[in-house]
């Protein structure tokens, strides 16, 4: 594990919170894409949406210190380009000195809390596009669950379209994570089929005044060649929920990464909480899939 100064982090938060804005402006930035045109982003915006579980442990991500240690260790692995998070997590990492020379992605809508009756009325309760740009961060991200049977989806679609327009006006890349979804017994389920992903891409690609700065973040499903034929937008693959068959997961990522239009990978829990317990090794394998020449 990397050595992190949590005493200093707590001191700044309690006594000198203005330092956060100062550090945002002085952070060393890098180009969005490297020489190979690929991108590997660690995702950790789950807790703010009431999603803290990994596997059989419903509170695996609840220990913020353990979470930050895992993130800092993973960010230090060669080939990791950046991190996606809510303001609190990104500011913790900033105060720990872990965001220099990294692509920083701000997560926008976290109001659709997991398990809530209003889950699909997914409010923008974290970053706005303007706040991401003001903080000197590099990328925006939104989640869009589309349930054709739930009227709350309409409000989320409209808010998402406004966010895409705002990002385009700021020339800020924005990562759109769409799913066709449905509710069963009060639980939202994402439809992980090629048909569903193609539909979600078509709907999401048309949001906003311009798609010039829109990217997609989509799950790896069967028939990814057909899925990728549905879009010309730059696309990152979603790592998804961790499962026990690690080799099969890596193989599916590798195959999908070779498709035209796929620019890289965005993964969170499956690498930060791997079955082996070895964060660095799990992250290194994924980095080698995205950046094989490094």
Would you write up a description of this structure?
The chain has 11 helices and 9 strands. The protein is of the alpha/beta class and 294 residues long. The protein has one domain (6-290): TIM Barrel, CATH 3.20.20. The chain has an 8-stranded parallel barrel with strand order 1-2-3-4-5-7-8-9, surrounded by 6 helices. Strand 1 (39-44), helix 3 (64-75) and strand 2 form a beta-alpha-beta unit. The longest helix is centred in the middle third of the chain and has 18 residues, at 152-169. The model has no long low-confidence stretch (mean pLDDT 94).
List the defining traits of the structure above.
eight-stranded parallel beta barrel; TIM Barrel; globular; 294 residues; 9 strands; alpha/beta; 11 helices
CATH homologous superfamily (4th level) name:
Aldolase class I
Which second-level CATH architecture applies? Answer: Alpha-Beta Barrel
Number of domain units: 1
Topology-level CATH name: TIM Barrel
Distance between the termini: 23 Å
Produce a short descriptive summary.
The protein has 294 residues and is α/β, with parallel strands linked by helices.
What is the topological layout?
Layout: H1 6-15, H2 18-26, E1 39-44, H3 64-75, E2 82-85, H4 87-95, E3 103-107, H5 129-134, E4 139-146, H6 152-169, E5 174-184, E6 187-190, H7 194-205, E7 214-219, H8 224-228, E8 235-238, H9 246-257, E9 262-267, H10 269-272, H11 279-290
Parallel strand pairs: 1-2, 1-9, 2-3, 3-4, 4-5, 5-7, 7-8, 8-9
Antiparallel strand pairs: 5-6
Helix pairs in contact: 9-11
């Amino acid at each position: 594990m990397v050595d992190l100064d949590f005493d200093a982090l707590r001191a700044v938060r309690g006594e000198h919170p203005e330092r956060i804005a100062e550090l945002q402006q002085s952070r060393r930035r890098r180009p969005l894409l490297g020489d190979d045109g690929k991108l590997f982003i660690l995702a950790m915006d789950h807790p703010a949406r009431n999603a803290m579980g990994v596997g059989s442990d419903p509170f695996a991500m609840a220990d913020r210190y353990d979470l930050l240690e895992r993130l800092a260790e993973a960010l230090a692995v060669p080939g990791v380009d950046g991190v996606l998070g809510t303001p609190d997590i990104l500011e913790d990492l900033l105060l720990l000195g872990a965001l220099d020379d990294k692509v920083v992605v701000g997560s926008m809508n976290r109001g659709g809390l997991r398990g809530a009756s209003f889950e699909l009325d997914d409010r923008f309760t974290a970053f706005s596009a303007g706040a991401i740009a003001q903080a000197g961060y590099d990328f925006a991200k939104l989640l869009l669950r589309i349930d054709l049977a739930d009227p709350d989806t309409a409000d989320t679609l409209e808010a998402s379209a406004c966010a895409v327009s705002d990002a385009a006006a700021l020339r800020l890349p924005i990562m759109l994570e769409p799913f066709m979804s449905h509710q069963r017994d009060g639980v939202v389920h994402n439809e992980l089929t090629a048909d569903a992903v193609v539909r979600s891409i078509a709907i999401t690609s048309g949001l906003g005044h311009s798609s010039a700065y829109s990217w997609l973040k989509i799950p790896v499903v069967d028939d990814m060649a057909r899925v990728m034929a549905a879009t010309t937008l730059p696309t990152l693959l979603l790592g998804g929920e961790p499962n026990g068959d690690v080799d099969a997961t890596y193989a599916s990522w590798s195959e999908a990464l070779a498709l035209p239009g796929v620019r890289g990978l965005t993964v969170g829990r499956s690498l930060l909480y791997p079955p082996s317990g070895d964060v660095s090794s799990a992250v290194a394998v994924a980095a080698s899939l995205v950046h094989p020449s490094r």
